Amino acid sequence: MVKHQPLQVYEKQIFVSFVTGIYGCRWKRYQRSQDNSSRWECIWFFILCSSFLLLLFWSYFWLVAQNDFNEFNWSVYNRSGEWRDETIPILASTTVGFSYITFLLILALFHISLGQQLNLYWVHKIGVLATLLTTISGVVSVDDIWGDEWDILLVSLQSTAPFLHIGALATVTAISWLVAGYVVRRNRNNFQVMVLLIYIIILLSLYLAPLTFTCPCIMDRHSLKPRPDIIGRRGAPMLAPENTVVSFNRALQHGASSLEADVTISVDGVPFLMRDRTLRRTTDVSKVFPARQFEDASFFNWTEIRSLNAGQWFLESDPYWTLETLTARDRGRISNQTVCSLVEMLRLAARANSSALLNIHRPPAEHPRSRSWFMDTLWAVQKAGISQKRVTWTPDTDRGRVRGLQQTTNEKLSVEEIRKRGITSLTLHYSKASNKDIKEYLANNVTVTVYPVNEPWLYSILWCSGVPSVSSDAPQVLRKVPYPIWLMSQNAYNFIWITSDLVSLAIVTGIFCFQKWRISGMQNCNPEQIMLSAVARRSSQDVNIMKEKLIFSELNNGLSSTEELSLCPENGCERYSHGGLRH
């Protein structure tokens, strides 16, 4: 009689082949292993997880930084001298890199859950390293060019923290399946205990994280202040060339209650609207005055400035990808735009019964109007026929000589300093205007205007904070926000928070108990019995064919015709002879 080995039945494992094939190029069964992963492969898994977390942070940064894309491109322009939308290649590479790393991480987690050995293919290792290094270089570059923008991360959490908390809680709860499967093994070591402690600390931190949240929109809806007024910052620069008559008209058409402009003084004392130091970006000065294209805009006289075209650049560069939304008539008007004077802008504001906010660029010391710039500005205001009470300007200088006009400052000052200077309004960057500061200013009758506000989420949290007005490059976007994106009472949020924590705790506890029961049951079973039982339950034609192939293979390898093989599953005994099958 021949000694019998457990009969193994191999099934097609398409999903396992897919996972191990793409992750490690191990498409065949014999290439796979259920042994513990090597230390080197564990290091690569750690690098993969680190890359994912860095890219997650990087992607979130660019998601919320959409509010300031115009500021980023302008910063790059001031360094390079060329206007390009640098956000397009950054967003494209970030999307591709994040998708690739996320896909590999999902495959790695499937390896762990299926008990397969990690073995990242060398091509993927190169891809992971390239993605990681590219992301790190991007972070370093942004920190150098646009370092102040990191503040938007903390500001955005005022709007996204409750939702990020729920997402993080769901993710960590799901990971408990893998953690439980790893730490409930019979043979425990110090590393398993460390993994369990780290997981528990992370879970408890998430449970208590809402205690640190500061969300203005968690409030009683009856306490909501009126909708903030929208100031057209340089008009509506996404729909028409900035600081032009067409741009200001478009801003008023989209509900702007006030207009904001950058004022420069020409060499002959005419205030005109220009943001940049030179005329290169927004006019055709390189064609009309090629030898003077890098010269300071304030050293041109008004006749020269008026001869320049200030709209054609918008049609050629399409800086905000909005050109296709313009009609042929709009494009015709834009193509004929010239540089706008301060008088024209103020007359337009007066006709629309709106106010004006002026950011005045003081001429350099060697400029002929360096000492009379404020008188030139006052003359333009008086000539435009607009009420001086509806004109606010910055900087807050020459207070004693500028009477009748409202003056504001871009500095964040204490209430005592504001009273000392006699200022009644502040124009602050959103990163400097915390919810606490805004409430303090408003309580002391100081009007606050926040800039730049281009995204609905930022507009919503400032609305909930009680800000009276915001300055925006996108009044056409904010016009479509009739109510804060989300508004929730404190009691409602507490209910959601506590309920989600309790549900997560119940699921994690259940998963750990189930994994302990499942693994202890597997350890108490005889593997040979499991194999034979699996065969006994399969009565399909494929199993019978496999049995006969194994038997006759043994016969061909030296069994005599009188020798018999027997296979005894749990439910009976079958005997095979060289001549056939007997029961």
From TrEMBL:
GO terms for biological process: lipid metabolic process; positive regulation of neuron differentiation. Residues 228-482 form the GP-PDE domain. It is found in: Membrane. Keywords: Glycoprotein, Hydrolase, Membrane, Transmembrane, Transmembrane helix. Its main location: membrane. It is a multi-pass membrane protein. One of its GO terms (cellular component) is plasma membrane. The keyword Membrane applies. One of its GO terms (molecular function) is glycerophosphodiester phosphodiesterase activity. Gene3D superfamilies: Phosphatidylinositol (PI) phosphodiesterase (3.20.20.190). InterPro entries: GP_PDE_dom, PLC-like_Pdiesterase_TIM-brl. The chain crosses the membrane at residues 42-63, 88-110, 122-142, 162-184, 191-213, 495-514. The keyword Glycoprotein applies. Belongs to the glycerophosphoryl diester phosphodiesterase family. PANTHER family: GLYCEROPHOSPHODIESTER PHOSPHODIESTERASE DOMAIN-CONTAINING 5A, GLYCEROPHOSPHORYL DIESTER PHOSPHODIESTERASE. This is Glycerophosphodiester phosphodiesterase domain-containing protein 5. It comes from Channa argus (Northern snakehead).
